Protein: Aspartate-semialdehyde dehydrogenase
Amino acid sequence: MALGTKPTLAIVGATGAVGTVMIDIINGRGSVPWGEIRLIASPRSAGKKITVRGAENTVVALSPEAFDGVDIALFDVPDEVSAEWAPIAVERGAIAVDNSGAFRMDPEVPLVVPEVNAAQVHERPKGIIANPNCTTLSMMAALGALHHEFGLRELVVSSYQAASGAGQEGVDRLYAEVAAVAGKQVGVRGGDVAEALTAAGLPEETPFKAPLALNVVPWAGSRKDDGWTSEELKVRNESRKILGIPELKVSATCVRVPVVTTHSLAVHATFAQDVPVEQARRVFEAQPTVVLQDDPERMAFPTPAAVVGEEPTYVGRIRQALDFPNTLDFFVCGDNLRKGAALNTYEIAETLAG
Structure:
């Protein structure tokens, strides 16, 4: 980038679910630091017209030449596409910010949440910065603020993950299941929901491991060793890396729930010192990207249906854990497509540009 000129931003996967949200975020900003915003997608999407900042942009096909003149390239594509093309973008002179899982645990690639470890954007030996998994990211602004003040030592998390975490296929399946059981007396005994789905002609193949309508499924991600899932291990490994606590004790149980968008987490966090609830509230209130919604008398607490489409992390149900010293329990909600994917990736780019 020439001195005095504004940087060029590229969005790779601009026509996908996360890329679309990212364009919406950019359009909603009061101002942006970019001289040019280039939209890149697969050849089948090339030529499509998308309005960005009031101007009509034409989507260009993914190719090495598409990165010429690009300063920062945001990747919202599957792992295998990022693994192949992010290094190519770097070779052409761009910094790659990747939202896939391709580089998250690479020791030479920083895993960044700007509220927590923004300085790491400048430590990128491979020219690539990774965006965390949406489940980890949903709690990280809140947890990072507490860690900065009190020193996190142990973390037990139960996640309640929306169907959109399984992609558009997951959303479509949930809507189809809800339609299949609507108005029917199901759920009285174990097989009723499954029977209703079969009777409605829904295919047996599903992104979930059991019916999701009128149900919760204690499994998200792929199977790993010793009964763990990939989502649960991501929470463990990514929390350690983002917070810079390689010895952090973490245990996670990831559950899929019949919510379209917005992940929720019940967090049980142990610190190096006592954390009074009022002090924790003050920490949350001081964090610009956290909204405190915690009033038991008025039944005020965050829920995914109320948080969807919002950019901040919402926190409530804050309690000192009974029988566990130096430990807080609290509930977190964050839009998994917005802050959990598109927004954090874009905020990394803003940090670089700033």
